[in-house]
Write a structure and sequence with these properties.
Layout lengths: L7 H16 L20 E2 L1 H4 L1 E8 L1 H22 L4 E7 L4 E6 L5 H8 L15 E5 L3 E5 L2 H25 L6 E5 L3 E7 L5 H8 L4 E5 L14 E5 L7 E5 L4 E2 L3 E8 L6 E7 L1 H13 L5 E5 L2 E4 L11 E8 L1 H13 L6 E9 L1 H55 L2 E2 L1 H30 L4 H33 L2 H36 L7
Parallel strand pairs: 1-19
Antiparallel strand pairs: 2-8, 2-18, 3-4, 4-6, 5-6, 7-8, 9-12, 9-15, 10-11, 13-14, 14-17, 15-16
Helix pairs in contact: 1-9, 9-10, 9-12, 10-11, 10-12, 11-12
């Protein structure tokens, strides 16, 4: 147990040296002798240590269901048209989460059902089809969305929302945000260092669904929009409305890129956009067929502008002008690049932690960590003498390795994380106590120093590994199912267990081995 090969000893020392180097970014600037590719990352401070803002978002799943039903109505309408089958009624039934189709003739029901079968799909890993088709009362065909399919759609909407929110926040310049799902329909957003998150809130809360729709120039003023149209307000004047074709000509999901820039002719800020191949083809078709007609650019149900199509636009690019300020143009371009949220999001809770409170938390947490660390060092030195100091050296290296691993991961340190570090140090010492007590037992049993060391380490290892592995599994479970603060605690514990297994079972053994070879003591000072 105390024998180390020539290759193993340099390997252990190399790990320790790398640990020291990788933990240095938290204390000093990068030395010039290190190559540019060498990782140089810091541990980031969490909201409770640095101060910042906490937002609890809730996804409007009712809007998701409404959107799915609206899309399903369009698909059924298109399918019936392609099959040359008539119908007297086609409408969404939100109460039963279904679309009701009334074919023109009862004899067409089998043909309609067969035609609609092609709309049935199975997503990978889904437990049911996306829709279910059944004959309803009064000669109707009911196309419903099963509960399992809706739950899968809602879960996908949450994950998509998290991805888009992450893009938007990253694009706004906020560093080290924490974004995590909570429960069925909630998302927790933590913004360290941001005490006034108004701009970020606006970026998060904007759905940013952009569409291009033709303006109905033949519509006559009336209390409601004509059939096939929808009446939308102007973004710059909500009291003014315009009737547009409810059929979307080009969808903003086909945007490839968007950038804010100043117009060299007017000096105003505009947003230039480019479309992918699908969007470019649709844009070319609609502008070619509607030269001389106004074409509305709609963002979240409000018309930004409605320019007249002067000529076919076949290049797949365009420009949005709306009297933007530099900030508004930049934000709109960012929103369009990040993509539209799958559903509206509401901010249901907001908290702010001032930097003073964060500084107090850092001071108190550091004091607790230092006090606990010194108490552990003192205990080991008093109770185990020289072997206690061996354990203390390993304990210091354990702390350095934990800091190094957390730095490489780019982890965010919170108060629960600091508590996890202190707890890990106690667990690390526990492993050394177990080894020392085993060695003591062997010495009391009359064994010679070398035999006592060999037997003590050998008998303690099984217990140390078993206890640390079971603790690791428990905290992996905490990380998977816990809330963000709990996950931060679990991460530090898991990292600490890995470094503890190295320092307690390898590093201390190496130190003890080198000491024994150099001294050859007649008795062990343990």
């Amino acid at each position: 147990m105390l024998y180390f090969t020539r290759a193993k000893t340099p390997g252990i020392l190399l790990i320790c040296a790398l640990g020291i180097l990788l933990s240095l970014p938290n204390l000093a600037p990068k030395p010039r002798f290190l190559p540019a590719a060498f990782p140089w990352h810091q541990v980031h401070l969490g909201l409770d240590l640095r101060g910042g803002s906490y937002l609890l978002l809730q996804i409007d799943f009712a809007a998701v269901e409404k959107q799915d039903l609206t899309s399903l109505v369009d698909q059924v309408r298109q399918t019936m048209r392609q099959a040359n089958l008539g119908y007297t009624d086609l409408h969404a039934d939100p109460a039963n989460n279904q679309v009701v189709l009334h074919p023109l003739n009862a004899a067409d029901i089998p043909a309609a059902t067969k035609a609609l079968d092609k709309l049935i799909t199975y997503e990978p890993g889904a437990s049911s089809a996306n829709i279910a088709i059944a004959n309803g009362p009064g000669g109707t065909v009911d196309i419903s969305i099963p509960r399992q399919a809706l739950a899968a759609r809602e879960s996908a909407a949450v994950q998509q929302s998290i991805t888009i929110i992450q893009r938007r926040i990253d694009g706004s310049g906020v560093l080290n945000p924490s974004i995590a799902r909570q429960g069925r329909d909630e998302i927790v957003v933590q913004l360290p260092g941001i005490s006034d998150p108004d701009r970020v809130k606006q970026l998060i809360g904007t759905t940013a669904h952009m569409t291009f729709q033709l303006v109905d120039t033949a519509a006559t003023p009336g209390p409601v929009a004509p059939l096939g149209d929808e009446r939308l307000p102007m973004a710059n004047d909500p009291t003014q409305f315009m009737d547009v074709d409810s059929q979307i000509a080009v969808d903003g999901k086909d945007l490839n890129n968007a950038q804010a820039s100043t117009n060299p002719q007017t000096g105003q800020w505009d947003v230039n956009f480019t479309l992918n191949s699908v969007g470019a083809r649709e844009f070319a078709d609609v502008t070619t067929a509607n030269v001389g007609k106004p074409f509305a650019i709609v963002l979240d149900g409000k018309i930004i502008e409605a320019p007249v199509i002067q000529e076919p636009i076949t290049g797949g690019s365009g420009q949005i002008t709306g009297g933007f300020t530099a900030q508004k143009a930049t934000d709109l371009a960012l929103l369009l690049r990040a993509g539209a949220l799958p559903a509206p999001i509401n901010i249901v809770e907001e908290q702010s932690v001032g930097p003073e409170l964060g500084a107090d938390a850092i001071r108190d947490g550091t004091l607790a960590l230092a006090a606990g660390f010194l108490l552990v060092l003192t205990f080991m030195a008093v109770f185990y003498g020289l072997f206690g100091w061996f354990a203390n050296l390993a304990l210091v290296m354990n702390l350095i390795l934990m800091l190094a691993i957390l730095s490489i991961m780019g982890a965010t340190l919170t108060l629960p994380g600091m508590a996890g570090i202190l707890l890990t140090l106690g667990m690390s010492v526990d492993a050394n106590i177990l080894i020392n007590e085993r060695v003591r037992e062997e010495v009391r049993g009359g064994r010679k120093p070398l035999a006592a060391l060999e037997a003590g380490y050998k008998r303690a290892y099984g217990t140390i590994i078993d206890s640390n592995v079971t603790t690791l599994l428990a905290h992996v479970t905490l990380f998977i199912f816990g809330s963000p603060p709990v996950r931060g605690f679990a991460v530090t514990i898991c990292v600490g267990i890995i470094s503890t297994l190295f320092t307690a079972t390898v590093l201390v053994r190496l130190i003890t081995s080198r000491w024994y070879i150099a001294r050859r003591p007649a008795q062990l000072p343990v």
